[in-house]
Design brief:
By secondary structure, the chain is mostly helical. It has helices spanning about 1-75, 80-174. It is built from two helices and no strands.
Length: about 170
């Protein structure tokens, strides 16, 4: 009866091991997905940073052009409406660039937040995987001990059976 209980416990432990193995597999898949997501967000961040630099260069170029136009305007007749229109146009473009730059800075900040959030999730998943691995190791050690005890039990039964056979043999001789 005790051997039956031990076998039942062994099967239950094996079922638990299967469940733990599935959890580890799922955790690894989730970790892989999060790494890919983190990589994509990092790419987006780099692209936004590059766009931001390009817009800065373009902004500086426009500001330089604006200053050149202002100098020309100061050197020429201040009533020249065409130059005033160009200045207005440049100022509007400059404002548009500033608006785009602000939008990209907001997107960059959102990407940074997503990366931080992803890193935290990844860290938590790694901790869970380590915990499950420790649990798996403990369960494995318990299983090994149960198997060892089962072998010892079977060996003892064999010894007792041999001793019983020997005693029956001697009893029959008498």
């Amino acid at each position: 009866m005790n051997l039956k209980n031990k076998e039942t416990q062994l099967f239950e432990t094996l079922n638990k091991l299967d469940s733990i193995a599935d959890l580890i597999k799922n955790s690894k898949e989730e970790s892989s997905y999060l790494k890919k997501l983190s990589s994509q967000l990092e790419k987006e961040k780099d692209e936004l940073h590059l766009k931001s630099k390009n817009l800065e260069v373009e902004k500086d170029s426009i500001i330089h052009e604006l200053k050149v136009f202002e100098q020309k305007l100061n050197n020429q007749d201040s009533g020249n409406q065409e130059l005033l229109n160009k200045i207005d146009l440049i100022e509007k473009e400059n404002q548009t660039i500033n608006d785009q730059l602000h939008k990209m800075e907001v997107e960059l900040e959102e990407s940074r937040y997503k990366i931080t959030e992803t890193e935290n999730i990844n860290k938590n998943l790694k901790e869970e995987v380590n915990s499950v691995q420790n649990e798996l190791q403990s369960t494995k050690e318990q299983l090994e001990e149960i198997l060892k005890n089962k072998k010892m039990f079977v060996k003892k039964i064999d010894e007792l059976s041999q001793e019983t056979d020997a005693m029956l043999g001697e009893f029959e001789k008498w």
